Amino acid sequence: MPEYKYQAQDSKGKIIKGKADAADETDLQRRFHDSGLLLLDAKPVTKQIALKSLKKPKLADFCRQLGTLTKAGVTLVKALEIVANDESITPYERQLYIRLRDRVVQGVALSNVMEELEPAFPPLLIYMIRAAETSGTLDTTCLRLADQYTSEAKMEQTAKNSLTYPKILSVLIVAVVAILFGYVLPQFEDMFSTMGTLPLATRILMAISNFVKTKWYVLIVAVVLIVIFGKIVKKIPIVAYTIDMIKCKGKWGKLFKVIYSARFARTMSSLYSSGIPIYSCIQISKGTIGNKYIEKQFEEVERQVLGGSPMSASLQNVDGFVSKLPATIKVGEETGMLGPMLESVANDLDFYSEQALVRLTSYIEPVMIVVMATIVGFIMIAIIQPIYQSYSTIGAGS
Length: 398
What we know:
A hairpin with a 5-residue loop joins strand 1 (about 5-10) and strand 2 (about 15-20). This protein has 18 helices and three strands. Helix 2 (about 55-70) packs antiparallel against helix 7 (about 140-160). It has helices spanning about 25-35, 55-70, 75-85, 90-105, 110-115, 125-135, 140-160, 165-195, 200-215, 215-235, 235-245, 250-275, 280-285, 290-305, 310-315, 325-335, 340-360, 365-395; strands spanning about 5-10, 15-20, 40-45.
């Protein structure tokens, strides 16, 4: 129940202040009247919480529970209360859902409350809930959103799982290099000091070894600064735009295009099926692609759609989508089956994008193995070369 900060007066005229839970102000007024008190003022208590975006699995669970409960005939307020009392959610989620319930009790639409709590809830969810409130299909829409967020969460998890082996290789490379520089190379330092002119590779290796051994702290600071600087630079609009443009080019561009097309198609399918106008669908869907270079091109797409052009024709010139996307949308426009065709191409592209993610991450593994082999090979050559030259000199002298 919402919490109210009240000010009341007893039969002797004494002012009483405090907080109490009640369904609404009418319920609070009745309870005070039954207790022989006169309610003078009551204001809902708004608890301040640091808002942050909910992750895809959390959004999927929220939408699935809300859709299932409302489909079973449970009122929205009661459904939100049940979701908020779920033992498996975090304290932050509980505060968020309680805020939703309290504001809905006060007569505010669910979509408007979600908009107030931005960025906790994404624009896609807000717009679809708003459309569902108008059409009376909240349960169906929530279940559709649950499926979409589950699919997106599965895809993200697939990408993370595919990166597990490359991460292990990265740690292994660092560990091998650290052992070679910290233990193996110092064993040869005394021997190398008695030799004459060392090969270039050996001199470079020993210089690196000495630097790491004597000024390791400089290396750590440099790595930290590079990471921080890299994150800052990536947030610069022109840099982010350039990086995203590069993703759409070359051999890897084909894989990224499948992923971007799948994201756009899935969002368009969900929005259009909820009865949202096509222009609004495009405006919302472009923000879910995750590529600034493609989003920039949507300025022209929106202009053409506003001018009366079919969406399929407007998307054909977008550099970042596979050709299958506008071709399928065109069939849907011509047959009057745009909704089913969007869902069909979204399902197909979801499968292909999952495969694309696996292939994309699989390219990283051989690259890292080559890097590791190159580093270890260079170190071994730099160590063996002066020893071989020393034996050659001894052999020539004898």
